[in-house]
Amino acid sequence: MQFSKKLINWYSVNKRVLPWRETKNPYYIWLSEIILQQTQVKQGLPYYEAFVAQYPTVFDLANAEEREVLKLWQGLGYYSRARNLHASAKHVVNALKGEFPKTYKELLNLKGVGDYTASAIASICYNEPTAVVDGNVYRVLSRYFAICTPTNGSKGVKEFKLLAQELIDQDNPAEFNQAIMEFGATWCTPKNPKCISCVFQDSCLAFAHNKVEDYPVKIKSAKAKVKYFNFLVFISDDGNTIIERRKGKGIWQNLYQFPLVETKKAVDYTTFRNQIEQHHLLKNIPFKLSLYNSEAIVHKLSHQHLYTKFWIVNVNRLHAEGISVNDIEQFAVPVLIGKFIDAFNFK
Questions:
Q1: Are 214 and 206 within 8 A, CB to CB?
Q2: Phi/psi of residue 223, nearest 5 degrees
Q3: Half-sphere exposure of 106 (CA within 13 A, CB side)
Q4: Cis bond leading into 216, ω under 30°?
Q5: Could you report the per-residue pLDDT of 251-269, keeping only the tens digit for each?
Q6: Which CATH code, of 3.90.79.10, 1.10.730.10, 2.40.370.10, 3.40.50.11600, is assigned to 225-343?
C-alpha cells in the first residue's frame, strides 16, 4: 500500500539514532519497550542505558533484588512496570531457560507485556507481521483517515488494531512499526504537528478539512480523586529517621516512604499536632513539630491528585526502628519523596 511505502521511506531518512535500534536482541528490545511505556524517549534513554550497564543480560536482571531494580527505576513512575520487568526476567530465566518467547502469542504470557509490547518485540526481533498500536499510532491513523471513533474505548481499540494490521508491510513489519511510532512521536505530534512539510499532506483527511487538532477523539476520563497526604519526617538527636515500606497493591507498592498520615482535607498546624499526639510513633513522648512546606505540593497521578505536606518531627530518640539519615538515599522511593529528600538538608 502507498501509505506503508511512503511511511517507511520517510523513516529511512528521518529516524533517530537510538541504541535499541542497533540490535535484534529480544532482551534489549523488551527492556526498551517496557521503559518507554508512558515515557518519552528523552526521559527513558538514560534509564535504558543504566539498566543495560547494570544488568547486561536477562540472567543479571533475574538475579537482582527487587529493591535494587526499583531503586534504579526511581524517577520513571508507574512502578508496576519495574516489578513486572523483574518478575518476567525471573520467568524467562527459570521457566524458559533464558530463551525469550518467539511469537506474539507467547510473548503475551510475560507479565507486563500487552498487545503493543508483544507486537513490537515480535516484529522487530522475529519479523512477525503484527502491528503495534499505541498513542502515536492512534494519532497518526485517526488524523490520516479522519476517524472519529474514540481511541480509549473498546470499539476504538479493535478498529485501530485492524486498520494498522491492514496497513503493515508484510515483508518488512519491523520497519513499518518503528516508522509509524517514530512519525507520531516526532512529526505528527499532539501539538504543533509538522503538517506543512508532511509527506502525507496531500492525502491526510484531517489536514484537508483543517481539523488536525480534533484528532484523536477520546472519551473524557473520570475526574481524578483528591487526597491529602501528610508525611512525618522524623529526625532524632542521634541522626536517625523512619521510613516504611508500602505494602499491599498500589502504584507505590514495595517503595519506601516516611510515615504517612492521610487526612480528609487540608489541616492547619494546631489541628494536625493535636491529631498526631496519639500516633503510635509519638504517643506519650515529647516532640517538636514544624511544617516544611506551607503550600501543599500537588503531585498529579493519572487517577488522583495528592496534596502533600512534609512535617518535620524532632525527637530525642526514635520509638521504632530507624535508619541513619546518611543512608536514606539507598532506598527506592516515589518521585514525590525523592524530590523532598534532594531538597531537604538532613545533615
A1: yes
A2: -65, 135
A3: 12
A4: yes
A5: 788 899 999 999 999 999 9
A6: 3.90.79.10
| Helix (DSSP H) and strand (DSSP E) numbers for the chain | 14, 9
- Cα 50 to its chain centre, rounded Å, is 16
CATH architecture of 2-130+159-180: Orthogonal Bundle (1.10)
Residue tagged 501539538 (cell numbers): 191
Quick one: residue 146, left, alpha or beta (phi over 0 = left, psi -120 to 50 = alpha)? left
Query: Which cell is 87 given?
Result: 518478575
> Could you tell me which of 7, 69, 58 has the C-alpha nearest to residue 31?
58
What's 223's DSSP letter?
P
Q: What's the predicted TM-score (pTM) here?
A: 0.82
Q: Which residues does the annotation mark as catalytic?
A: 33
Give 1-24 pLDDT, tens digit per residue: 689 999 999 999 999 999 999 999
d(Cα 74, Cα 257) in Å, to the nearest integer?
13
Q: Where are the domains of the chain?
A: 2-130+159-180, 225-343
A 10 A CB-CB count for 77 gives 17
Residue-wise pLDDT tens digits, 165-179 = 999 999 999 999 999
Note the pLDDT of residue 113.
96
The string of pLDDT tens digits covering residues 66-87 is: 999 999 999 998 889 999 999 9
